[in-house]
Write a structure and sequence with these properties.
single chain, alpha/beta, binds zinc ion
Amino acid sequence: MSAGHDAIYVSPHPDDAVMSAGGSIALDVRAGLRVAVVTVFSRGDPDERTRLDEDRAAARRLGTEWIDLGLPEAPARDPRCRRPTALFAPLSEDDQPLVERVRTALADTSVNARLFAPLGVGHHRDHQIVHAACAALAKERARPVLFYEDVPYALCAVRTARRLDQIGASIALPRPGLLKERIAIARWWLERPVLAEEAPALMLPIAALWAARAEGDCPRAHGDSLNLTEERREIPEAMPDKLSAIADYATQWPRFYPTLDEFRAALAAHAHALGSPVAMERFFRCVEP
Ligand SMILES: [Zn+2]
């Protein structure tokens, strides 16, 4: 993997880094930093070729280098992951070789680069794997690591707090209780167009509850906790670039929001709920204990 980057944004799939941290990417590029987006799981989707083109186009638009690790995504590795109960389930020992493979690949990137990695909000298996690989690098003190809130999952407000709890992070955000969280997550799924692709109309409420339950039943992780501090980056001037780059993922954003305006409004509502009057992205930086 080529060296000399100042910032590396690790994306479990094409689209995650841009949807979650596209404003920060744009600001880093404007500041003259050498930025790369590393996409980890990019093979096996029926739209694979189109999705790779979308990812390349978004990287070009934002002015970053694009690095494709080319690993198969969860449903391509294991057909059981076509069901939400498996796709959002906790990792097991069987996943460790893949975590190690991703860790090794990322360890080869510029050692002094800041690594922006998924927090794993929403609990998608591939996001958990990339998070675990980057958490290992953070614990080795191999480089500075900042975890981003995974969008669109994090736009359901209860989820970031529950994810921090699940990974045993030192930082705790207020949680409303498991039942309220599950209801909020089920309602969020119910409003996502992607659910209607997966389930017949009459089954939608049940499918939403299943997805919420799969995520809700995750036990708290064992092992060393991460020492995190919250950081916010205001991105109003980078918002047009971020939205244009999100628009490049034409196979993906409509699965979550019917229009880009609704996507933009959901991002704004999230920032507003966190007390920010302007567009903002939230990160959790790993610090010395
Ligand atoms: Zn993803």
